[in-house]
Specification:
heterodimer; A: about 120 residues; mainly beta; seven-stranded mixed beta sheet; four-stranded antiparallel beta sheet; 11 strands; about 50% strand; globular; B: about 110 residues; Immunoglobulin-like; six-stranded mixed beta sheet; five-stranded antiparallel beta sheet; about 55% strand
Chain lengths: ~120, ~110
């Protein structure tokens, strides 16, 4: 089955530092990947759509300079939380859609990355 | 942004009982999907129902869709403790983005 690998699964950093999270599709290609943020006991909120070879599309209210997204290849997208602050602490989840099966809309999810900013 | 509401927000049942979760959405859809999330983990796709379908089964899962009411339900029969998780419905909106409902936290007691 389609597998999405997300790394790191947990990261703790000091306020003001930047953190990079990687999302890889291991056995399929994805021109589009999605980044979600989830607070405890809440649903997933779409942050941005990562497009291979072009700029990411951000949802309203999401600061693009704060959350840098790079989608350099058909199997890798990265999210960099720049100058992280405690309010950025959250669970970040990436997902990808198989290029060959884009019509259904089904997404494959990574295991998530829990960011804690001290 | 979230597509709609789910109810109940939380559901606690005994092992062996059935669990029903409901989802409402706002816009027209091509399909509606249900996902499961174990605590602190990623999401797993459970089932997809197309807009021209009214009911779909997969193992112990049964999904219904009422496009006139813009609602769907997920039934888990003969629940097990391992079914304890959060369940989300999701729909594809403009830009081919998947937007999730608020979710139902299911707890199955053994």
């Amino acid at each position: 089955g389609a597998v999405v690998s997300q790394h790191p699964s947990r990261v703790i950093c000091k306020s003001g530092t930047s953190v990079k999270i990687e999302c890889r599709s291991l056995d399929f290609q994805a021109t589009t990947m999605f980044w979600y943020r989830q607070f405890p006991k809440q649903s997933l909120m779409l942050m941005a759509t990562s497009n291979e070879g072009s700029k990411a599309t951000y949802e309203q209210g999401v600061e693009k300079d704060k959350f840098l997204i790079n989608h350099a290849s058909l199997t890798l997208s990265t999210l960099t939380v720049t100058s992280a602050h405690p309010e950025d602490s959250s669970f970040y989840i990436c997902s990808a859609r198989d290029l060959k099966d884009a019509s259904t809309g089904e997404l494959f999810f990574g295991e998530g990355s829990r960011l804690t900013v001290l | 942004s979230q597509q709609g509401e789910e109810d109940p927000q939380a559901l606690s049942i005994q092992e062996g009982e059935n669990a029903t979760m409901n989802c409402s959405y706002k816009t027209s859809i091509n399909n509606l999907q249900w996902y499961r999330q174990n605590s602190g983990r990623g999401l797993v796709h459970l089932i997809l129902i197309r807009s021209n379908e009214r009911e779909k089964h997969s193992g112990r899962l049964r999904v219904t869709l009422d496009t006139s009411k813009k609602s769907s339900s997920l039934l888990i029969t003969a629940s097990r403790a391992a079914d304890t998780a959060s369940y989300f419905c999701a729909t594809v909106v403009y830009g081919n983005k998947l937007v999730f409902g608020a979710g139902t936290i299911l707890r199955v007691k053994s």
